[in-house]
Design brief:
With 559 residues, this protein is mainly alpha-helical. Helix content is 72%, strand content 5%. The protein has 25 helices and six strands. The radius of gyration is 26 Å and the shape is elongated.
Length: 559
């Protein structure tokens, strides 16, 4: 009976959440708006269902944890080094500029200096959950605007920790020592996460790839996300920072694509619970009586942050279109503002009525953030109609999305990877055999762990952003099982399969798959030639490369 009582609220929320998502799509609005509205309605009818401390509230908190873990999977130490200028330079400038503008307006409207500063800083932050979601929905993860936005959000998540320490220390007056201690803890946590990535996480996944089942892999990903968040919380840092560092640990290994595919369903589901809880936290009486003031506050927040963000972008030598797109995308509020404004000392200093209106205004900015992203992108597109060279560079995708993905890193996969490397064509490879993966990585190939038959992996490796996929080892039965789904999801992906016999090629051709017959002794040279030709490499250059490869293969035999 106790289990049934605990599960019942989740069943109700899941059913209502599905309805809210579908109705939002039918109304052509972002599902976030539907979740916020649903949270308000559920809170009005059954407040205990979404109350703090309940099961749904716990799931909402976990949603943000898993979101930050997923973001961390994109940030290896190499990535941090590449983005250091944005994280430690652009981030502080953006937060500082927004804080200055908003705090000055709050002070001019009658707040004392310290409360005005706290309000300005809390409102200067942007929603990691929503901005990252908007970026993912529009497949902008590897565009410079998106990369910079995520780097700024990382700095904001760290800055939020120190803001919370400041607000909770207002009454005791011990903010300085507490913030210094938090800084030292953050540096120590980053150092420990890097050591753990090398000496714990990577060996652990190597063992699992060889001996673990699928459910063990999933459980391990969940364990790392939750354990990292829990450890950070126990030492006085935030669970979200810990989860981000946990993702960074996994990003240091060749297993991040598989972990992303495992964690994705949990992240999406739990984040929806978060927005439900945000909607439930709104004061309906305040909204009904003070909606003009709330609307004015929300408009002011968006306008001031847009101005500050654009100025910060221009200071970092971004073009005007890029500055507008980034500035407007980051103009909404942050879920962290709800935490800050509910601290008793802050509520007392700012005023309960003002806090209630600010919370409603921040929720409104959260709801319109997807629309703000669209507005900023559209405005930037129009400004770029007269693009200069500097503007054009902001449109070039960056990061690790290479045009070719190779499935299987045996002899054939290695030959194809060598061919692509010879002509400076980027590739990524996935391999499900742990021993073969370790050998490929040790030999310098760009490979990661993954099972291509798992549909969850397809989005994790961004098949939609690829031009070609090369299957080096798969059965005809596997092709019949999952190729229809793959073609339906990624119709523009050019697929090339390497087979041993003409009969296998004929069967694949009947399924609409292009196949290349490559004898075992050739190690895939014919397949590499076919791929290079399709990629536009000159025929003479392809033939010369193939001849060199055959000579190298023949030398050991001649000896």
């Amino acid at each position: 009976m106790e289990i049934a009582e605990a599960v019942f609220p989740i069943l109700i929320i899941l059913a209502l959440g599905i309805a809210a998502a579908v109705l939002s799509r039918m109304a052509r609005v972002n599902p976030i708006v539907g979740y916020l509205f649903l949270g308000m309605m559920v809170s009005a009818v059954h407040p205990a269902l979404l109350s703090a401390g309940g099961t749904v509230h716990l799931l909402a908190e976990l949603g943000v944890v898993f979101l930050l873990f997923d973001i961390g999977l994109h940030f290896s130490t190499a990535h941090i080094r590449r983005e250091a200028g944005d994280i430690f330079g652009f981030g502080p400038l953006q937060v500082g500029a927004s804080t200055l503008l908003i705090a000055t307006c709050a002070w001019a409207l009658g707040l004392a200096a310290m409360p005005a500063f706290i309000v300005g800083t809390a409102l200067a932050l942007s929603s990691t959950a929503i901005v990252a979601g908007v970026i993912a929905d529009r497949r902008q993860q590897n565009c410079p605007v998106a990369l910079t936005a995520v780097a700024i959000l990382i700095f904001q998540d760290v800055a939020a920790i120190f803001l919370l320490i400041l607000t909770t220390s207002l009454e005791s007056g011990a903010a300085g020592p507490a913030m210094l201690a938090a800084l030292l803890k953050t540096v120590l946590a980053i150092g420990l996460s890097l050591l753990s990535a090398r000496f714990i996480v990577r060996p652990l996944f190597a063992i699992l790839s060889k001996h673990g089942a699928e459910e063990v892999f999933t459980a391990t990903a969940l364990l790392i996300a939750l354990a990292a968040g829990w450890l950070a919380a126990t030492v006085g840092l935030s669970m979200t920072l810990g989860a981000f560092l946990g993702g960074m640990m996994v990003a240091e290994s060749p297993f991040k694509a598989s972990v992303r595919s495992e964690i994705g369903p949990f992240r999406g589901l739990l984040v929806s619970f978060f927005f439900l809880s945000v909607g439930a936290s709104l004061d309906r009486a305040v909204i009904e009586t003070a909606w003009p003031a709330i609307l004015l506050m929300a408009t002011g927040i968006i306008a001031l942050k847009s101005i500050a963000n654009i100025l910060a972008s221009l200071a970092f030598r971004w073009s005007v279109p890029g500055s507008v797109q980034l500035g407007v995308l980051m103009a909404g509020g942050s879920e962290f503002a709800f935490v800050v404004f509910n601290v008793p000392a802050v509520r007392s200093a700012v005023g309960s009525a003002n806090v209630a209106q600010l919370i409603a205004a921040v929720a409104l900015t959260l709801a319109v953030t997807p629309a703000l992203g669209y507005i900023g992108r559209t405005a930037a597109g129009r400004l770029r109609s007269r693009a200069t060279r500097r503007m054009q560079t902001e449109l070039v995708p960056q990061g690790n999305v290479n045009p070719v993905i190779i499935v299987g890193m045996g002899d054939v996969g290695r030959t194809i990877a060598d061919a692509l490397g010879e002509f400076d064509i980027g590739y990524d490879a996935v391999e499900r055999d742990g021993a073969r993966l370790r050998r490929a990585v040790a030999d310098g190939y760009n490979a990661s762990f993954g099972d291509a038959s798992d549909a969850r992996l397809w989005r994790a490796v961004d098949l939609g952003g690829r031009e070609f996929s090369v299957m080096t080892a798969a059965s005809i039965e596997a092709a019949r099982d999952w190729m229809p789904s793959s073609v339906a999801l990624f119709p523009n992906l050019h697929r090339l399969w390497v087979v041993r016999t003409d009969d296998e090629a004929a069967q694949l051709n009947e399924l609409g798959i292009e196949a290349v017959v490559s004898a075992e002794a050739s190690h895939g040279i014919e397949a590499a030639e076919a791929l290079l030709m399709v990629l536009g490499v000159a025929p003479d250059a392809v033939s010369a490369w193939a001849d060199r490869q055959r000579v190298r293969m023949a030398k050991p035999l001649a000896a």
